[in-house]
Automatic annotation (TrEMBL):
This is Uncharacterized short protein YbdD (DUF466 family). It comes from the Bacteria. It comes from Microcella alkalica. InterPro entries: Sel_put (IPR007423).
Amino acid sequence: MTAIASRRSARTLSVRAGAAALGRAGRAVTWYVRELMGDTAYRTYLEHHAATHGAEVEPLTEREFWRGRMDEQDQNPGARCC
């Protein structure tokens, strides 16, 4: 391998590593924002409900879940911006 080809190869690996790191960072930020905004709350509730109650108790519908969550936040606002 020539010196020029070796430098190109190293540069290509460096660019690929940077792109992979950028992709991981983007996925991490997306996950954080979704968790922060509560986008996964209903799915988390369903997983908890299945583990805790199994099939013996019917889970809330998504609409019922969000209505209850909003009512709870209205009754106990805690520390939030809005």
